[in-house]
Amino acid sequence: MIPYRVLVVDDSIFMRKIISDLLSGNPRLKVVDTAVNGAEAVEKVKQLKPDVVTMDVEMPVMDGLRALQKIMAEHPTPVVMLSSLTQEGAAATVKALQSGAVDFIGKPSGSISLDLYKVKLELHQKLMAAARSNVRPIGLPAQPDKKESAVSATKPARRPPFSSGIGNTEGPKAEGRRHFSHLVAIGTSTGGPRALQQVLSGFPANFPAPILIVQHMPPVFTSSLARRLDSSSAIRVVEAEDGMTVRSGTAYIAPGGYHLLLQREGADQYRTRLSAEGTRSGHRPSVDVLFESLLPFKELKRHAVLMTGMGSDGAAGMLALKQAGAVTTIAEAEETCVVYGMPRAAVERGAAMHILPQQHISGKLVQLIET
Prior knowledge:
Layout: E1 4-9, H1 13-24, E2 29-35, H2 38-48, E3 52-56, H3 64-74, E4 79-84, H4 87-98, E5 103-107, H5 120-131, H6 146-154, E6 182-188, H7 192-200, E7 211-215, H8 221-231, E8 236-239, E9 250-253, E10 259-265, E11 269-275, H9 287-293, E12 301-306, H10 315-323, E13 328-332, H11 342-348, E14 354-356, H12 358-368
Parallel strand pairs: 1-2, 1-3, 3-4, 4-5, 6-7, 6-12, 7-9, 8-9, 12-13, 13-14
Antiparallel strand pairs: 10-11
Helix pairs in contact: 2-3, 3-4, 4-8, 7-12, 9-10, 10-11
């Protein structure tokens, strides 16, 4: 079997050697070259056409994020980021994931560390999965054009459904209602940050349902993800805390290391509950745990969504919700998934009522959910 060809990008000669050594023992992976900065990485991707790239975040000349953006615009190639487990590293990594990176590996003790050996198996698995993933071109961030901006400013904004004129992300966002009849639950993994950005940005500010979300991610990274998504969405997006009152027009992201569940508070109000109980199929948070927590609430019109990700987490929970009377169950279509794993499992089990490309999911939910 022909091994996947890997380009290793890091400004540290020590880290380039460590990563190359970690990959040398796997017959499915072959390091074809290394690059010392983002500019060199862009050129070597163009010349060598590797199957997958490991990319450091912080580098001189051109950093990893800018290099990723150029690669995805000019020569789309699966990229796995290497990130320090710090708040700053998490923020940069989430931005990279939304810019097209397939996945990331956290460096256990900072930028230069022998502890990287601790994640050897994870590195192998994520690189092989990334090499098989579906990456699509993503344009470079647009440079502001004064003439175009002036013209755009004269055009009236198109109001989204349910809109009361609040449809932008500037200024404080209004708090949603504690009383609602619909609830949306979304599960995703590899490729999820970009998919979530696509879906959540399609909801109007006064979307009349709360959204509960499980994205497979470690601690620190989920708080950065929530902030990034909140800045690009008209609805509020927060990292869930234990005991939060659940409100419409708000998305609650399960924090890394905790399951997210729904619990009733009184007759018709609800709160989030976090649990540190054992992993489910290797995951905490788990999509199955979230979906199963919704089973008792038949008074709510429940809508479940499974998007891009490896494995089958959420498929069993989605089927149980469908059998328990959920109004809608949606699996992301293969053509827009970075990794067609979790949605495939739902489709194969007969759990999905609708199979939709990523860009149509929010529109379908808006269509189905009425005030």
